[in-house]
Specification:
The structure is a homodimer of 433-residue chains. In chain A, a hairpin with a 5-residue loop joins β15 (407-411) and β16. By secondary structure, chain A is α+β, with helices and mostly antiparallel strands. Chain A has 2 domains: 17-334, Bira Bifunctional Protein, Domain 2 (BirA Bifunctional Protein, domain 2), CATH 3.30.930; 347-431, 3-Layer(aba) Sandwich (Rossmann fold). Chain A contains 16 helices and 16 strands. An 8-stranded mixed sheet of chain A has the order 1-5-6-11-10-9-7-8. Chain A is elongated and about 90 Å long. The longest helix of chain A has 20 residues, at 17-36.
Chain lengths: 433, 433
């Protein structure tokens, strides 16, 4: 019989044991932080009615969907984010949920067929949202949870670059251009990549004059510090209600952030932050690693007015953010801060011969009962081969039965050895400082 | 604009927050046990080439697949188990893996279009396997890990019903019917449901005489205790090598199981256990809850000779098992042993008015830093409404700022109250025995 070539689809990949272990530990850390703030998990299906997933999606995004007709004739699609499923979920279960509703969701999402090299078509998305309340307390909470997540991950300093959509809207209102917020945002989004001149010409194209464009660009440029930035923004938004509310809320958010014990300089008011998604209506945030700014945003989010308007008449404002699991894994690797652990086993008991196997099993079980992850080498092999196995896997301690029934312990890192009368002696040796 | 009906596909479901929290805690417990035994996670894509997923799958199973042509023209399918992906994985990455290879994999699998009522089309599969070694030590390890998993989950006593395929094969060899192992197994599989007469008539159909059938049925009936069972099996398998090896290994497995500190009666030799899957070649096991035997098996597995023969010429024997996450969740619910936790928040600080909000944020952060999951109610609402929120979510402690700056603490379970000067006093009160 000819063999089937073992391979994965383009854009899909396996995780090797060490990678999977690192990701699993990272996800656990993130979940612990979420739960410490009262956020609990939910789960939704990977596969949904295509109608739900598509919602008001544009044609470009639709091209990326994995969609098909199932064997029951239903038009279905694999989800491409966790926001649409969240919107569907809160609309469907509104009566059973308790609001303010704090939830996190860590799940796989699927985006296919874009030409970028190396782009993952399946990846783990990690979102947290607080749905219901409006105002600075909720916004500040989101930023504090974000900051706590990064602090727990040991990725070095992280700066949350924060802005509020209402400030630019207020400015456009003073300029008599409130109806052009969308094209202006779209133009600004290209500023970093294409430079001011391109942005100016796009804005001229939607009828802004040069003075107005100067104001807009000034309003999207951070000052020397947050106070300077806010003062300059205050002058630009004038008396507009939304502009003043945006600025006042940023001040409150900053105060609450510090009150919660966060480093003040971990939050920076940065009016250049726009975030493309058009459903943000208030605060917006992007997280950047201080040591690896070029890796790009490692998370972000913002406030939205209306999460689930496609599915329910209930008005559901909220604030939420995503944590970039994959990019954080890359960052930890680049920083050399990834956990050294290649396996969870702390102690290997070598195969002692069939006649002493029960004893080896008891020895390993005793270590395990004391919290030391342990395994017995599960079949007869040359001792050297078993030691190579321990070495390749990165097991820190190896115990081999001596003829007198004691165990010869070896610490693989430095070769230190010890003769241990029993599991309890082995434990003492392993745990000595 | 008309609304889209928020709904999930038939056979797919959302997890409500309390369910998702329970499942997440359960999965974590299982992972902890796996890791304590040196098993690490791997991950593989949900979507694979259909050719890989189908392998040598029969037509019936194929009907259950979610398969389609992707937008790049590839024939793809969503995985319907984690065994085929494991086989593909070890074949593809053989050179990078360290053998003996212990891995676990917890992931979603998809099976559609079977008519059974209420059958889930998406569910979480949880498998552990030890690949490479052959023999009783590896088999015993698998059973010990299984027993440790159930012990950690607090589902009451669990019995592992264990058999070895080689015993029946040995008996059939003595009967000159070694070539009819498959139809005999298929017939035996129906014994519990259809009764001995149906089974006898099927066996007659493949040429066994009544004396042979009597032997087969006797060999599939447990004795009063394991010793009696083994003695009776020994008589039946005669001198056949495989029969004797199966019995000898069961004896060793039982010894090692006990040596590792497991309750002896948690393992029962039960020759009626067959397990349908035709790829098992040695030990087979099914786990049954002592308090809820009727709920069916909550896990099972066995030894196989050749995991990845479709993809590689390397011979990969192993032993593995699956833990029935969904059925265990049902069992915990039926036993009333599910965790009471409806949310992770331990302390809610009510909204104190905008002028004291920074103080409330500091109070909650101090509790959190001491390990108490805490949240601030994130917007101004009537106090009664905030208390109802705490009650509906099941938050155990609520703190409300008094006018003098102290906090009024309330324990929701019994209504006990305490006036706490600050977060540190609140912490002492929460943690008092």
């Amino acid at each position: 019989m000819s063999l089937i070539q073992p391979r994965t689809l383009k854009g899909f990949r396996d995780l090797m044991p060490a990678q999977a272990l690192r990701r699993s530990a990272l996800v656990r850390t993130v979940e612990d932080v979420f739960q410490a703030h009262g956020y609990g998990p939910i789960d939704t299906p990977v596969l949904e009615y295509a109608e739900i997933i598509k919602g008001k999606m544009g044609g470009e995004a639709t091209k990326e969907l994995f969609e098909f007709t199932d064997k029951g004739g239903r038009e279905v699609a694999m989800r491409n984010d966790l926001t649409v499923p969240l919107a569907r979920y809160v609309a469907q279960h509104e009566g059973k949920l308790v609001f303010p509703f704090r939830r996190y969701h860590i799940g796989l999402v699927y985006r296919g067929e874009r030409p970028q090299r190396g782009r993952a078509r399946e990846f783990l998305q990690c979102d947290a949202d607080l749905i219901g309340p409006v105002g600075a307390a909720a916004d500040a909470e989101a930023l504090i949870v974000m900051a706590d997540v990064y602090a727990a991950l040991d990725v070095g300093g992280v700066t949350l670059r924060v802005n509020d959509r209402r400030i630019l809207n207020g400015l456009l209102e003073t300029l008599g251009a409130a109806d052009r917020a969308e094209p202006v945002l779209r133009a600004l989004d290209k500023r970093e990549k294409l430079g001011d001149e391109t942005v100016r010409s796009e804005m001229r194209g939607v009828g802004l004059d040069d003075a107005a464009i100067d104001s807009v660009l000034a309003a999207c440029t951070p000052g020397v510090d947050d106070e300077a930035t806010l003062a300059s923004l205050e002058a630009l938004v004038g008396e507009t209600e939304q502009g003043r509310a945006g600025i006042a809320d940023l001040r409150t958010v900053r105060e609450l952030f510090e009150a919660a014990g966060q480093r003040p300089d971990a939050l920076r008011i940065d009016p250049s932050i726009a975030r493309g998604l058009d459903y943000y209506t208030g605060i917006v945030v992007e997280a950047q690693l201080d040591e690896l700014p070029d890796i790009g945003s490692v998370g972000g989010g913002g406030r939205y007015d209306d999460l689930a308007g496609l599915y329910t008449k209930s008005h559901m404002p909220g604030v939420g953010f995503t944590v970039g699991i994959t990019r954080l894994m890359d960052a930890l690797e680049a920083l050399g801060r990834e956990e050294e652990t290649r396996c969870t086993t702390e102690a290997l008991v070598t195969f002692p011969g069939a006649e002493h196997l029960t004893e080896a099993f008891a020895f390993a079980a005793a270590l395990r009962a004391a919290g030391i992850a342990s395994e017995v080498y599960p079949q007869r092999k040359k001792h050297g081969q078993q030691m190579r196995y321990a070495d390749r896997r990165g097991v820190p301690f190896v115990f081999t039965r001596n003829e007198d029934g004691s165990y010869h312990g070896k610490r693989m890192a430095d070769g230190e050895t010890s003769t241990c009368a029993d599991a309890s002696a082995a434990l003492t040796w392993i745990q000595k400082p």
